[in-house]
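Reply to dn_fold:

You asked what the input looked like. This is it:
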Amino acid sequence: MDINNLSRANHPAVYYQEMLADRLRMARYREAIRRAVRPGDLVADLGTGLGILALMAVQCGARRVYAIDNRPNSLWLAQRVVAANGAADKIDLIEADIREVVLPEPVDIVINELIGEFGTDENIVECVSGFAAGNLKPGGRILPQHLTTYLVPVEYRDEFRGVFSKAYFGLDLRAAIDLPCQPNAVLHPLYALPKELAKAHVMEDVAFNLTPVARLKRIPCRFEIHCAGVLQGFVGYFKAQLWDDVWLSNYPNYPGGHWYNWHWPVDPPIEVHPGQEIEAKLNIRENMVAAGWTLDWDFD
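and this is what came back:
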Protein backbone atom coordinates (compact mmCIF):
# COMPACT_ATOMS: atom_id res chain seq x y z
CA MET A 1 0.00 0.00 0.00
CA ASP A 2 1.26 3.47 -0.90
CA ILE A 3 0.89 5.33 2.39
CA ASN A 4 1.87 8.59 0.71
CA ASN A 5 -1.43 8.63 -1.18
CA LEU A 6 -3.65 8.04 1.87
CA SER A 7 -5.98 10.84 2.89
CA ARG A 8 -7.60 11.05 6.29
CA ALA A 9 -11.00 10.41 4.70
CA ASN A 10 -9.99 7.10 3.09
CA HIS A 11 -7.53 5.93 5.73
CA PRO A 12 -8.45 2.31 6.57
CA ALA A 13 -8.15 2.97 10.32
CA VAL A 14 -11.17 5.30 10.14
CA TYR A 15 -13.33 2.22 9.48
CA TYR A 16 -12.58 1.01 13.02
CA GLN A 17 -12.90 4.37 14.73
CA GLU A 18 -16.54 4.03 15.76
CA MET A 19 -16.03 0.53 17.16
CA LEU A 20 -12.95 1.53 19.15
CA ALA A 21 -14.69 4.66 20.43
CA ASP A 22 -17.40 2.41 21.93
CA ARG A 23 -15.65 2.31 25.29
CA LEU A 24 -18.27 0.15 26.99
CA ARG A 25 -17.85 -2.51 24.29
CA MET A 26 -14.09 -2.41 24.62
CA ALA A 27 -14.16 -2.42 28.45
CA ARG A 28 -16.50 -5.43 28.53
CA TYR A 29 -14.33 -7.34 26.04
CA ARG A 30 -11.20 -6.43 28.00
CA GLU A 31 -12.79 -7.78 31.20
CA ALA A 32 -14.04 -10.93 29.48
CA ILE A 33 -10.59 -11.62 27.99
CA ARG A 34 -8.97 -11.02 31.39
CA ARG A 35 -11.20 -13.71 32.89
CA ALA A 36 -11.09 -16.17 30.00
CA VAL A 37 -7.45 -16.19 28.85
CA ARG A 38 -5.05 -18.16 31.03
CA PRO A 39 -1.28 -17.71 31.17
CA GLY A 40 0.35 -19.80 28.43
CA ASP A 41 -2.83 -20.13 26.33
CA LEU A 42 -2.78 -20.47 22.57
CA VAL A 43 -5.43 -18.08 21.27
CA ALA A 44 -7.20 -17.45 17.95
CA ASP A 45 -8.68 -14.01 17.28
CA LEU A 46 -11.22 -14.17 14.45
CA GLY A 47 -11.73 -11.00 12.40
CA THR A 48 -8.85 -9.32 14.20
CA GLY A 49 -9.14 -5.93 12.47
CA LEU A 50 -6.41 -3.77 14.01
CA GLY A 51 -5.40 -6.59 16.36
CA ILE A 52 -6.80 -4.98 19.51
CA LEU A 53 -8.35 -8.12 21.02
CA ALA A 54 -5.23 -10.09 20.13
CA LEU A 55 -3.12 -7.55 22.00
CA MET A 56 -5.45 -7.73 24.99
CA ALA A 57 -5.00 -11.53 25.01
CA VAL A 58 -1.22 -11.06 25.09
CA GLN A 59 -1.62 -8.60 27.96
CA CYS A 60 -3.49 -11.32 29.83
CA GLY A 61 -0.76 -13.94 29.41
CA ALA A 62 -1.40 -15.64 26.06
CA ARG A 63 1.69 -17.46 24.81
CA ARG A 64 0.74 -16.98 21.15
CA VAL A 65 -2.21 -15.47 19.29
CA TYR A 66 -3.21 -16.37 15.74
CA ALA A 67 -4.94 -13.20 14.53
CA ILE A 68 -6.98 -13.88 11.38
CA ASP A 69 -8.66 -11.49 8.96
CA ASN A 70 -9.51 -11.60 5.26
CA ARG A 71 -8.91 -7.87 4.65
CA PRO A 72 -5.35 -6.98 3.57
CA ASN A 73 -5.80 -3.35 4.64
CA SER A 74 -6.65 -4.48 8.17
CA LEU A 75 -3.63 -6.75 8.45
CA TRP A 76 -1.28 -4.10 7.10
CA LEU A 77 -2.40 -1.76 9.87
CA ALA A 78 -2.57 -4.51 12.48
CA GLN A 79 1.08 -5.33 11.78
CA ARG A 80 2.02 -1.75 12.59
CA VAL A 81 -0.10 -1.65 15.75
CA VAL A 82 1.20 -5.01 16.98
CA ALA A 83 4.80 -3.97 16.38
CA ALA A 84 4.28 -0.62 18.09
CA ASN A 85 3.08 -2.49 21.19
CA GLY A 86 6.03 -4.86 21.29
CA ALA A 87 4.01 -8.00 20.55
CA ALA A 88 5.25 -8.99 17.08
CA ASP A 89 6.90 -12.12 18.50
CA LYS A 90 3.62 -13.33 20.07
CA ILE A 91 0.99 -12.49 17.43
CA ASP A 92 0.88 -14.23 14.04
CA LEU A 93 -1.20 -12.25 11.55
CA ILE A 94 -2.93 -14.48 8.98
CA GLU A 95 -4.84 -13.36 5.89
CA ALA A 96 -7.48 -16.02 5.30
CA ASP A 97 -11.15 -16.91 5.28
CA ILE A 98 -11.99 -17.91 8.87
CA ARG A 99 -14.03 -20.88 7.68
CA GLU A 100 -11.16 -22.32 5.62
CA VAL A 101 -8.00 -21.64 7.63
CA VAL A 102 -6.10 -24.48 9.28
CA LEU A 103 -3.68 -23.39 12.00
CA PRO A 104 -0.32 -25.10 12.60
CA GLU A 105 -1.58 -26.14 16.06
CA PRO A 106 -4.93 -26.27 17.87
CA VAL A 107 -5.75 -23.40 20.24
CA ASP A 108 -7.06 -23.28 23.79
CA ILE A 109 -9.51 -20.45 23.22
CA VAL A 110 -11.20 -18.67 20.32
CA ILE A 111 -12.11 -15.00 20.76
CA ASN A 112 -14.04 -12.87 18.31
CA GLU A 113 -16.29 -9.86 17.88
CA LEU A 114 -18.31 -10.91 14.85
CA ILE A 115 -21.57 -9.74 16.43
CA GLY A 116 -23.91 -7.95 14.03
CA GLU A 117 -26.62 -5.43 14.83
CA PHE A 118 -29.05 -8.36 15.10
CA GLY A 119 -26.48 -10.60 16.74
CA THR A 120 -26.21 -13.48 14.28
CA ASP A 121 -26.64 -11.49 11.07
CA GLU A 122 -22.93 -11.39 10.18
CA ASN A 123 -22.50 -15.16 10.01
CA ILE A 124 -20.91 -15.44 13.45
CA VAL A 125 -22.43 -18.91 13.96
CA GLU A 126 -21.10 -20.37 10.72
CA CYS A 127 -17.68 -18.70 11.03
CA VAL A 128 -17.00 -19.59 14.66
CA SER A 129 -18.41 -23.10 14.45
CA GLY A 130 -16.52 -23.91 11.25
CA PHE A 131 -13.25 -22.58 12.63
CA ALA A 132 -13.59 -24.25 16.03
CA ALA A 133 -14.35 -27.64 14.48
CA GLY A 134 -10.88 -27.82 12.96
CA ASN A 135 -8.75 -25.62 15.22
CA LEU A 136 -10.00 -25.72 18.82
CA LYS A 137 -8.61 -28.21 21.32
CA PRO A 138 -11.09 -30.67 22.88
CA GLY A 139 -12.60 -28.88 25.84
CA GLY A 140 -11.43 -25.53 24.50
CA ARG A 141 -13.28 -22.27 25.16
CA ILE A 142 -15.04 -19.74 22.95
CA LEU A 143 -15.63 -16.06 23.70
CA PRO A 144 -18.43 -14.91 23.44
CA GLN A 145 -19.94 -17.89 25.24
CA HIS A 146 -23.58 -17.24 24.39
CA LEU A 147 -25.56 -15.08 21.96
CA THR A 148 -29.33 -14.62 22.05
CA THR A 149 -31.43 -12.60 19.60
CA TYR A 150 -34.91 -11.22 20.20
CA LEU A 151 -37.78 -9.67 18.27
CA VAL A 152 -40.47 -7.51 19.88
CA PRO A 153 -43.50 -5.59 18.50
CA VAL A 154 -43.48 -1.96 19.60
CA GLU A 155 -45.06 1.45 19.52
CA TYR A 156 -42.25 3.94 19.11
CA ARG A 157 -41.95 7.00 21.26
CA ASP A 158 -40.11 10.06 19.94
CA GLU A 159 -37.35 8.03 18.34
CA PHE A 160 -37.52 6.56 14.86
CA ARG A 161 -41.07 6.91 13.42
CA GLY A 162 -42.61 7.92 16.72
CA VAL A 163 -42.13 11.64 15.95
CA PHE A 164 -44.71 11.41 13.17
CA SER A 165 -47.67 11.87 15.52
CA LYS A 166 -50.74 14.05 15.77
CA ALA A 167 -49.30 16.00 18.69
CA TYR A 168 -45.91 17.30 17.63
CA PHE A 169 -45.65 20.85 19.07
CA GLY A 170 -49.33 21.30 18.23
CA LEU A 171 -48.86 19.98 14.70
CA ASP A 172 -50.11 16.79 13.04
CA LEU A 173 -47.21 15.13 11.23
CA ARG A 174 -48.91 11.85 10.38
CA ALA A 175 -49.35 12.85 6.75
CA ALA A 176 -45.58 12.81 6.31
CA ILE A 177 -45.28 9.10 7.02
CA ASP A 178 -48.74 7.69 6.19
CA LEU A 179 -47.91 6.94 2.57
CA PRO A 180 -48.41 3.49 1.04
CA CYS A 181 -45.02 1.85 0.60
CA GLN A 182 -43.35 -1.50 1.02
CA PRO A 183 -41.62 -1.41 4.42
CA ASN A 184 -38.11 -2.82 4.38
CA ALA A 185 -35.75 -3.49 7.26
CA VAL A 186 -34.30 -0.22 8.56
CA LEU A 187 -31.15 0.28 10.62
CA HIS A 188 -31.65 2.94 13.29
CA PRO A 189 -30.39 3.53 16.85
CA LEU A 190 -32.67 3.51 19.87
CA TYR A 191 -31.50 5.25 23.03
CA ALA A 192 -34.78 4.92 24.92
CA LEU A 193 -37.09 1.94 25.24
CA PRO A 194 -40.12 2.03 22.94
CA LYS A 195 -43.47 0.84 24.27
CA GLU A 196 -43.36 -2.94 24.06
CA LEU A 197 -46.75 -4.30 23.03
CA ALA A 198 -45.94 -7.96 23.78
CA LYS A 199 -43.24 -10.06 25.37
CA ALA A 200 -40.07 -10.27 23.31
CA HIS A 201 -39.61 -13.57 21.46
CA VAL A 202 -36.29 -15.43 21.41
CA MET A 203 -35.34 -15.88 17.76
CA GLU A 204 -31.96 -17.62 18.06
CA ASP A 205 -30.14 -18.88 21.14
CA VAL A 206 -26.55 -19.95 20.46
CA ALA A 207 -24.25 -21.51 23.05
CA PHE A 208 -20.88 -21.51 21.30
CA ASN A 209 -19.15 -23.99 23.60
CA LEU A 210 -21.76 -26.62 22.76
CA THR A 211 -22.33 -28.43 19.47
CA PRO A 212 -24.41 -25.93 17.46
CA VAL A 213 -27.74 -26.88 15.97
CA ALA A 214 -28.56 -26.11 12.35
CA ARG A 215 -29.92 -22.60 11.93
CA LEU A 216 -33.46 -22.22 10.66
CA LYS A 217 -34.02 -20.20 7.51
CA ARG A 218 -37.56 -19.24 8.54
CA ILE A 219 -37.92 -18.59 12.27
CA PRO A 220 -41.54 -18.67 13.51
CA CYS A 221 -42.74 -16.63 16.46
CA ARG A 222 -46.02 -15.74 18.14
CA PHE A 223 -46.81 -12.60 20.11
CA GLU A 224 -49.76 -12.00 22.42
CA ILE A 225 -50.52 -8.30 22.75
CA HIS A 226 -50.57 -7.37 26.45
CA CYS A 227 -51.38 -3.65 26.25
CA ALA A 228 -53.34 -1.34 23.98
CA GLY A 229 -51.31 0.75 21.57
CA VAL A 230 -50.31 1.35 17.98
CA LEU A 231 -48.19 -1.30 16.30
CA GLN A 232 -45.57 0.67 14.41
CA GLY A 233 -42.93 -1.99 13.93
CA PHE A 234 -40.82 -4.87 15.22
CA VAL A 235 -37.39 -4.32 16.76
CA GLY A 236 -34.56 -6.87 16.66
CA TYR A 237 -31.76 -6.90 19.22
CA PHE A 238 -29.17 -9.13 20.87
CA LYS A 239 -27.78 -10.01 24.28
CA ALA A 240 -24.27 -11.45 24.33
CA GLN A 241 -22.71 -13.28 27.25
CA LEU A 242 -19.06 -12.61 26.65
CA TRP A 243 -17.83 -14.52 29.69
CA ASP A 244 -19.68 -15.60 32.85
CA ASP A 245 -21.29 -12.38 34.15
CA VAL A 246 -19.83 -10.06 31.49
CA TRP A 247 -22.67 -9.08 29.13
CA LEU A 248 -23.38 -6.73 26.21
CA SER A 249 -26.70 -5.76 24.62
CA ASN A 250 -27.80 -3.21 22.01
CA TYR A 251 -31.35 -2.69 23.28
CA PRO A 252 -31.70 0.09 23.82
CA ASN A 253 -28.41 1.38 22.56
CA TYR A 254 -26.15 2.99 25.14
CA PRO A 255 -24.39 6.36 24.78
CA GLY A 256 -21.38 5.89 22.54
CA GLY A 257 -22.56 2.47 21.37
CA HIS A 258 -21.71 1.58 17.77
CA TRP A 259 -24.43 -1.07 17.36
CA TYR A 260 -27.81 0.15 16.12
CA ASN A 261 -31.06 -1.85 15.86
CA TRP A 262 -32.78 -3.44 12.90
CA HIS A 263 -36.45 -2.46 12.58
CA TRP A 264 -39.22 -4.00 10.49
CA PRO A 265 -41.77 -1.14 10.18
CA VAL A 266 -45.52 -1.69 10.04
CA ASP A 267 -46.91 0.61 7.37
CA PRO A 268 -49.48 1.92 7.96
CA PRO A 269 -49.46 1.53 11.78
CA ILE A 270 -52.26 -0.56 13.30
CA GLU A 271 -54.13 -0.14 16.58
CA VAL A 272 -53.86 -3.27 18.73
CA HIS A 273 -55.61 -4.45 21.90
CA PRO A 274 -54.80 -6.90 24.70
CA GLY A 275 -55.46 -10.51 23.79
CA GLN A 276 -54.76 -10.16 20.07
CA GLU A 277 -52.13 -12.54 18.73
CA ILE A 278 -49.60 -11.99 15.95
CA GLU A 279 -48.07 -14.83 13.96
CA ALA A 280 -44.76 -13.98 12.34
CA LYS A 281 -41.89 -15.60 10.47
CA LEU A 282 -38.45 -14.05 10.07
CA ASN A 283 -36.83 -15.10 6.80
CA ILE A 284 -33.05 -15.35 7.09
CA ARG A 285 -30.82 -15.16 4.04
CA GLU A 286 -27.28 -16.49 4.28
CA ASN A 287 -24.23 -14.29 3.80
CA MET A 288 -26.23 -11.11 4.17
CA VAL A 289 -26.77 -8.66 7.01
CA ALA A 290 -30.31 -8.22 8.26
CA ALA A 291 -31.06 -5.63 5.58
CA GLY A 292 -31.94 -8.63 3.42
CA TRP A 293 -34.03 -10.40 6.06
CA THR A 294 -37.79 -10.12 5.67
CA LEU A 295 -40.59 -10.47 8.20
CA ASP A 296 -43.97 -11.96 7.31
CA TRP A 297 -46.68 -11.40 9.91
CA ASP A 298 -50.43 -11.38 10.37
CA PHE A 299 -53.01 -11.43 13.13
CA ASP A 300 -53.99 -14.93 14.13
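The chain has two domains: 3-113, 147-299.
Hope that clears it up.
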